[in-house]
Amino acid sequence: MDANRLLVQPWLSGVELFQADFSGQPFGRHSHDAFAIGAILHGVGGYQCQGARHALPAGTLSLMNPEEPHTGHAISSRLVYHMLYVEEARLPALLGRKRLPRGFNQLNPADDGAVAQLMAGLALEFERHDALALESQLLAVLELVFIRHGGMRPLPTAARDGGSTARLREYLEAHYRDAVSLEQLAVVGERHPRHLIEAFRRAYGVPPHTYLLQRRVREAKRLLLGGEPLSEVGLQLGFYDQAHFSGTFKRFTGVTPGRFRSAART
After folding, report:
1. What confidence score (pLDDT) does residue 63 get?
2. How far apart are CA 96 and CA 100, in angstroms?
3. Are residues 102 and 117 in the same domain?
4. Domain annotation covers residue 219
């Protein structure tokens, strides 16, 4: 069995997500020119690194610094994990830091489920073409892992908003149908995305990406009540496909778009 997949987006250079699901496939001694962040989801993985053998059961992380030679293999009959690779040169801009984290000080720490959950969400966002969702999820993963295991200090809360969140909200209201990226929001808000996301969450209760989805769902309701074809509403509002639209609509309303329209007609 081999169901491995490598997920990339052309506009997100230096970042890859490897979805591993295999049995019996060994990886020879190699290294990466990137930080590697892995979450073991099922089974037990094994590798040799720094002169020692390591076994990683489900619920642990696999963390690797750049240019660290290692092997890899499945100890159990089936091994499932997510492995994120981020090139070292990309980290300062992604994290909003002038200096890189000093690197991971432990190879396979235990995970309380927080990292694995974020990684699962990241894998889902890689399947779509929503730049804001993917970049926001990526930032959340990197922040959590490097603060917990890389010696990075949390960014201090900005003392003043300076109107950034209000400008950002106006921008999202005007462009809710469009593909929006964190880079665009950073330009509008004149702050690094990390600061911007937290400031927006404090001001409006949700991060920018959730606000954008809520705005799209609100507009979807109006279009559905106005008789727009169900198959066209999601595409008009920037959803990746019908399943993405239906799932998001149900997440915020409790019902599918079809049930919403049926209920409105009764």
Report:
1. 95
2. 10
3. yes
4. yes
Alpha-carbon gap, residue 64 to 104, rounded angstroms: 7
Reading the block at residue 37, the tokens are 């962040």
Return the exposure string of 34-60: e unless at least 16 CB atoms fall within 10 Å of the residue's CB, then b. bbbbbbbbebbbbbebeeeebebebeb
CA distance 122 to 75: 26
The CATH number of the domain where 94 resides is what?
2.60.120.280
CB 61 within 8 A of CB 149: yes
Q: 157 in a domain, yes or no?
A: no
Q: What tokens appear for 8 in the block?
A: 């990339």
What domain count does the chain have? Answer: 3
Do the Cβ atoms of 25 and 2 come closer than 8 Å? yes
Per-residue pLDDT band at 240 (split at 50, 70, 90): confident
Strands, E assignment, the chain: 5-7, 15-22, 27-30, 34-42, 44-49, 52-57, 61-64, 70-74, 79-87
Query: What separation in angstroms does the CA of 171 have from each of 73, 178, 187?
Result: 48, 11, 11
